[in-house]
């Protein structure tokens, strides 16, 4: 009979007491009553309980001891027939409802017979129990596995209360609970931890686990001091950046990280992240701000120092979800994008080269334009020269005709020389030499000058010229320069439009007695909304290859003449217009 | 007296056109200037000319198109082309279209006169 107060069934009584009763005495009745209470308790305890008769096994083991056998485990292993006999001697004499449930049994008698066979950790448990008992323990607890009646395996935790050595009945009481669920949960936790470690180690992406507890602590301290906006705080205390970078310590990194940064083992990395991150303070600043704001992750690009002295470009995602952050852990994934960055740099170089080539080509086109402009009058002069010679060499020389031709030649020569002068003064940026310029004619000349450019770009030009035939007081060459610039801009603005929509309208108007207005109206892409104010600034350009000089020169010229220039979007393109002082109508145009 | 040959001169540059007309007239041909191929075809009498001297680059129809269009209309009048440009493919295109010759500006006027003479004598 079990006596320990620690045991679940300290009221255990011999079960077959009825048989030993000869006469119903009061003592017996009291016993019977007590027995009844015990039975009720035994049956309805919320744990599985059974009574085990192990007297025969005990005798067999004591026989071994007497024969001087110390190591039971080895003996059992070497003498399976002994173990078989000992186990066959075990008898389960009682089992409660909960036991039936534990073993998945319906028939109590059947279960009682089968139970010794359903115990799967026999030899181990018998050895441990024997030792415990021999050491004077009143009970023994351990974990074990059982086979249930349906063949499934259950993990249990059991406690056996040893029978009193003096008790002739010698029945053990065993209590057991099913711990399969706990075991499964523990196993799956272990499995997921193992999986995490495995993934962390062998993912083909560089992974870093950092200890952020010091940083979190420091953040909390700052919050207590009343800091709510870290960005602001960093502006006042830029030194905190250095402090922050030292507070983050690397706990572990995976194989790929070691390889990427040219280290030898992950242990090389256990330090603050300072040595890797020092290059890009801005990226780290963003990282700190995101953490402080309680964001769960931050991504960005930065450069990292490697062990072998290289600097690599990386893309990183650092995650500090609340659950991890509270444990002072954050993880980061890092991708080496050095190759991509290099490719981008090469692409930019290539673009720059193309832009340069395109400028050279434009210059080439300009040269071709000039050559054409000069060639045309030269060809006329040569032809006229030959013609006049022929008219004069006739049997009857036609002097009148020759004179006429000679005048044409002078006009052509002047035309060629004008082109040259224009080019020279454009290149030299000559001081304005104001004269009276008929504006409509100046526009005709500009269109003529750009004829080739306009044709090549399939641009139609519509002239909406004032019938007032206004004249402006202006430097002819500089006026040409403004017109050419504005028209070329308009042509380029329409480069993406279908041919038939490429159209420029050139308008002139005498606004009042003193002001002439010239307007270039295109069907191009227009200006972006906010742009119209600054398009006249130097080096402002929307063109890929633009220098951003053209419009600023236009403004300088117009303003030097006392006029003004402005730009606006129209319903289907853009308009740039400028004013010049008008010449008095009685002044003589200088052609 | 021999009937004088009629030469059409097509060029959009007024002063060069006028110089060509003066030159051709000095050799005792009848010269008529046109500012474009369309103006020439629209004159209603393209078949009355014995030779055409045309710039390749003209507003509207080009000199090369003109040659093709004339062939379509059944006029096999010799066409001499001139150009101020230097691209090599122009020469191939001009010859492929059936032009008698391509002269590059500025050319020697005598060369044009000789070419016109050659064209006219071949026609006879």
Task: Give an overview in words.
Chain A is of the alpha+beta class. Chain A has helices at 17-20, 26-44, 55-66, 72-78, 80-88, 97-103, 108-118, 122-134, 180-202, 213-224, 230-236, 239-247, 255-260, 274-277, 281-292, 322-326, 338-393, 399-428, 439-449, 451-456, 476-493, 550-560; strands at 48-53, 91-95, 139-147, 153-161, 171-178, 206-211, 249-253, 297-305, 311-319, 329-336, 435-438, 460-464, 471-474, 503-512, 515-522, 565-570, 573-581. A 5-stranded antiparallel β-sheet of chain A has the order 2-1-5-4-3, sandwiched between helices. A 5-stranded antiparallel β-sheet of chain A has the order 7-6-10-9-8. In chain A, α19 packs across α21 (476-493) and α21 runs antiparallel to α22. The longest helix of chain A has 56 residues, at 338-393. Chain A is rod-shaped and about 175 Å long. Chain A starts with 16 loop residues before the first helix and ends in a 10-residue tail after the last strand. Chain B is of the alpha/beta class. Chain B has 5 helices and 5 strands; from the N terminus they run βαβαβαβαβα. Chain B has helices at residues 14-26, 37-42, 63-72, 88-96, 109-123, and strands at residues 6-10, 30-34, 51-55, 79-83, 101-104. In chain B, strands 2-1-3-4-5 form a 5-stranded parallel β-sheet, with helices on both faces. The longest helix of chain B is centred in the C-terminal third of the chain and has 15 residues, at 109-123. Chain B is globular. The model of chain B has no long low-confidence stretch (mean pLDDT 88). Classes of the chains: A alpha+beta (591), B alpha/beta (124). At the A-B interface, α17 and α18 of A face α1 and α5 of B.
Topology:
The complex is a heterodimer of chains A (591) and B (124).
Chain A: H1 17-20, H2 26-44, E1 48-53, H3 55-66, H4 72-78, H5 80-88, E2 91-95, H6 97-103, H7 108-118, H8 122-134, E3 139-147, E4 153-161, E5 171-178, H9 180-202, E6 206-211, H10 213-224, H11 230-236, H12 239-247, E7 249-253, H13 255-260, H14 274-277, H15 281-292, E8 297-305, E9 311-319, H16 322-326, E10 329-336, H17 338-393, H18 399-428, E11 435-438, H19 439-449, H20 451-456, E12 460-464, E13 471-474, H21 476-493, E14 503-512, E15 515-522, H22 550-560, E16 565-570, E17 573-581
Parallel strand pairs in A: 12-14
Antiparallel strand pairs in A: 1-2, 1-5, 3-4, 4-5, 6-7, 6-10, 8-9, 9-10, 11-13, 14-15, 15-17, 16-17
Helix pairs in contact in A: 17-18, 19-21, 21-22
Chain B: E1 6-10, H1 14-26, E2 30-34, H2 37-42, E3 51-55, H3 63-72, E4 79-83, H4 88-96, E5 101-104, H5 109-123
Parallel strand pairs in B: 1-2, 1-3, 3-4, 4-5
């Amino acid at each position: 009979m079990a006596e320990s107060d620690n045991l679940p069934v300290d009221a255990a009584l011999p079960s077959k007491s009825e048989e030993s009763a000869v006469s119903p005495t009061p003592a017996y009745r009291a016993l019977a009553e007590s027995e009844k209470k015990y039975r009720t308790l035994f049956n309805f305890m919320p744990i599985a309980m059974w009574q085990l008769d192990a007297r025969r096994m005990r005798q067999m083991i004591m026989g071994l001891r007497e024969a001087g056998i110390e190591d039971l485990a080895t003996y059992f292993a070497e003498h399976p027939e002994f173990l078989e006999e000992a186990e066959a001697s075990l008898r389960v004499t009682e089992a409660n409802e909960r036991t039936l449930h534990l073993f998945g049994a319906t028939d109590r008698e059947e279960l009682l017979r089968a139970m010794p066979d359903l115990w799967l950790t026999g030899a181990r448990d018998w050895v441990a129990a024997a030792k415990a008992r021999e050491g004077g323990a009143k009970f023994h607890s351990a974990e074990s596995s059982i086979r249930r009646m349906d063949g499934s395996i259950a993990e249990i935790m059991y406690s056996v209360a040893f029978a009193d050595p003096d008790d002739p009945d010698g029945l053990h009481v065993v209590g057991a609970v099913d711990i399969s669920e706990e075991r499964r949960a523990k196993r799956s936790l272990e499995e997921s931890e193992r999986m995490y470690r495995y993934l962390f180690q062998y993912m083909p992406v560089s992974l870093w686990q950092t200890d952020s507890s010091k940083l979190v602590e420091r953040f909390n301290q700052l919050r207590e001091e009343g800091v709510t906006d870290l960005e602001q705080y960093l502006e006042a205390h830029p030194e905190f950046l250095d402090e922050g970078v030292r507070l983050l310590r690397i706990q572990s990194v995976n194989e790929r990280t070691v390889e990427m940064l040219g280290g030898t083992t992950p242990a090389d990395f256990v330090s603050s992240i300072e040595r890797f991150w020092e290059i890009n303070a801005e990226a780290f600043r963003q990282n700190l701000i995101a953490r402080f704001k309680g964001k769960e992750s931050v991504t960005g690009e930065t450069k990292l120092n490697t062990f072998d002295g290289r600097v690599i470009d990386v893309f990183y995602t650092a995650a500090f979800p609340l659950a991890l952050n509270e444990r002072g852990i954050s993880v980061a994934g890092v991708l080496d994008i050095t190759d991509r960055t290099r490719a981008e740099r090469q692409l930019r170089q290539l673009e720059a080269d193309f832009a340069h080539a395109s400028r050279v080509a434009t210059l080439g086109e300009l040269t071709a334009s000039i050559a054409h402009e000069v060639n045309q009058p030269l060809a006329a002069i040569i032809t006229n020269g030959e013609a006049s010679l022929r008219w004069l060499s006739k049997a009857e020389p036609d002097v009148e005709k020759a004179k006429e031709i000679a005048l044409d030649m002078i006009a052509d020569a002047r035309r060629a020389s004008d082109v040259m002068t224009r080019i020279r003064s454009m290149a030299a940026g000559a001081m304005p030499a104001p004269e009276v310029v008929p504006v409509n004619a100046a526009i005709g000349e500009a269109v003529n000058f750009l004829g080739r450019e306009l044709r090549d770009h399939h641009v139609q030009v519509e002239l909406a010229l004032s019938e007032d035939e206004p004249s402006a007081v202006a430097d002819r060459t500089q006026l040409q320069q403004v017109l050419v610039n504005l028209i070329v801009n308009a042509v380029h603005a329409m480069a993406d439009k279908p041919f038939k929509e490429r159209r420029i309208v050139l308008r002139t108007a005498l606004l009042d007695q003193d002001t002439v207005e010239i307007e270039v109206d295109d069907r191009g892409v227009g200006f972006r909304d906010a742009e119209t104010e600054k398009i006249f600034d130097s080096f402002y350009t929307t063109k890929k290859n633009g220098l951003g000089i053209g419009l600023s020169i236009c403004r300088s010229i117009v303003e030097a003449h006392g006029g003004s220039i402005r730009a606006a979007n129209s319903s289907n393109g853009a308009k740039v217009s400028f004013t010049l002082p008008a010449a008095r109508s009685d002044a003589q145009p200088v052609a | 007296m021999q009937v004088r040959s009629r030469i059409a001169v097509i060029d959009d540059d007024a002063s060069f056109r006028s110089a060509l007309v003066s030159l051709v007239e000095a050799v005792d041909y009848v010269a008529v200037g046109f500012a474009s191929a369309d103006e020439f075809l629209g004159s209603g009498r393209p078949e009355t000319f014995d030779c055409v001297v045309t710039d390749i680059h003209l507003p509207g129809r080009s000199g090369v198109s003109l040659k093709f269009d004339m062939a379509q209309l059944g006029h096999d009048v010799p066409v001499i082309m001139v150009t101020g440009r230097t691209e090599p493919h122009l020469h191939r295109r001009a010859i492929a279209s059936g032009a008698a010759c391509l002269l590059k500006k500025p050319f020697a006027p005598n060369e044009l006169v000789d070419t016109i003479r050659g064209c006219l004598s071949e026609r006879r």
